[in-house]
Amino acid sequence: SITPFSEYPLAVFESEGSEEFYLRAPIGSNMEDGTLVLAGDLALGAHVQISHTTRDWIIEASEKSIAQAFASYTGKEPEVAICFSCSGRKQVLGTRTSEEFKLLNTRNPDLKVFGFYSYGEIAPLHRDTPSRFHSETFVSLLLGET
Questions:
Q1: Which of 22, 25, 50, 65 is surrounded by the fewest CB atoms within 10 Å?
Q2: For residue 2, is pLDDT > 70?
Q3: Listed residue (25, 41, 8, 21) closest to 87, CA to CA
Q4: What is the per-residue pLDDT for 112?
């Protein structure tokens, strides 16, 4: 559900001074005691920052995810793309939701694309690093012959 904070996920930095972060989306709040309910855990001592986004930034981040997927793909031309986009992104994108998935066909018009919205995504921040739970993320997975 949409809370007053839905459009302002928390950027979670695992160490002070780090530039890399993952997001935690507020999914509820208690105005009486000033607490937020987040999608996913928050490590004790983690450094957090309130973030914001625009529709254009969301589309740019999707383009980056897709570019990383193609750059990491070691097989022949991919045949299928599976996309997982956070429902929080859908709320912010509104009428522009289809743009995320159309980006894949821009790179390869023959690519079969399917996906769905989720309430959290599991993926690494970078290749060869452990997977983690994400909020407000677009994950693209390419499949095909090796």
A1: 50
A2: no
A3: 25
A4: 93
The total of other beta-carbon atoms located within 10 Å of residue 32's CB is 6
Q: Where are the beta strands (DSSP E) in the chain?
A: 10-13, 22-24, 26-30, 35-38, 47-50, 80-86, 112-118, 121-124, 131-134, 138-143
- pLDDT average, residue stretch 124-130: 82
Alpha helices in the chain (DSSP H): 55-72, 87-93, 98-107
Q: What are the b/e assignments for 103-116, b being 16+ CB within 10 Å?
A: bbeeeeeebebebe
Domains defined for the chain, CATH in brackets: 10-50 (no CATH), 55-143 (3.40.1260)
Residue 107 CA to residue 19 CA, distance in Å, equals 29
The Cα–Cα gap between 62 and 97 comes to: 11
User: Which DSSP symbol is given to 34?
Assistant: T
What number of other Cβ atoms are within 10 A of residue 121's Cβ?
Answer: 17
Q: Two tokens at 43?
A: 């490590």
CB-based contact 58:92 (threshold 8 Å) = yes
